[in-house]
Amino acid sequence: MLDIYSKLNDMKRVAILGSTGSIGQNTLKVIAALNKEPVDSRGKTGGFRVVALSANSNSDILLRQAKQFNPKWICLVQEASAKRAAAKVSSRCRVLSKEEGLRDLIRHSNADIVVLAISGANALMPLIECIKMKKRIILANKEAMVIAGPMIMKLAKKHKVEILPVDSEQSAIWQCLDGKEKKQLRKVYLTASGGPFKNHNPRQLRRISIRNVLKHPRWNMGRRISVDSATLMNKGLEIIEAMCLFGLDLSQIEIVIHPEAVIHSMVEFIDGVILAQIAITDMRIPIQYALTYPRRRPNKIRHLDFFKLRKMNFEKPNFKVFPCLGLAIEAAEKGATMPCVLNAADEIAVEAFLNRRINFTDIPGIIEQVMRRHKVITRPSLQDILDTDKWARKEAKILINY
User: What is the spatial distance between Cα 145 and Cα 149, in angstroms, rounded to a whole number?
Assistant: First the structure.
């Protein structure tokens, strides 16, 4: 036991890529809280040292984080933001910029754990770099896995790298499986709250405002993921992600609308037993579990009160109201480069909606048209994936006149 505790008491070095977003900020809150609490009855702590932080352009938040956690490395991909930060940061902290700077941060920051919270397809190359550097990866990005999941998992297996999911649904599946053999698994139930428009009809959705789309009933999230949750595209992307992370067939995954959002996913085994992971809607819970895995640590986050909850409801998704979910399932069926096209077209369509260039109900139509124009590459290389992503974005912009 002493050897185990001595390892736990080592300070784990953590790099957070995408630290200014919701997941990044919550990760820092979790680390700050964990570092204050003892890990065992003898008062010893298994702490975390933040050695590197990165963001795209938000230098104000990143500088506040750097002041609190004192990392040795920070990176702002946008060069102008990096120059502003360099003039304000401690001389002991190295400031990097551009994609090359992000690669240098991954290679040289000496992190044991990398929390990958970069949004969108931009996370793909940093994820590949983390795998090659044999880091333990806490994955809070689904898009990279959607567009190149088989390639990523093959590379992770080659380098013997752990990828620990943070998305509440994927974390729930991971916790329910808990080392069980794949042959014992019958089905996975991915739960969805249904978003803000669960009870709407297609006609009502034509008049939906951006403000209403971004007002999720259960989660406080970034703008793109909030739109994807409103269209249920987010759940479709999670289907593809789960297939890759856990080696599942599409037929083994079922979407369940669960408005209370306390069951984050369920796993059914061949004997009919179903295990559910249940907790309040707070991303700090799956983040903490990934950081402290394989142990659990106490926290001061509010726990679920079943007597206040009283009931839980379950429904099938309405594909007529949420056509994006059907498109994602189609992309999952075709595989190869089609999920990449799905994600790229969705990113552009969502961005156009947020910039008031298209209506909310235009999003699935644009994605579908780009998918229909794509000729699937059955055995894609990394360059094929990158080229397909670029092509699909261009096609979506042409359709939108964007």
Answer: 4
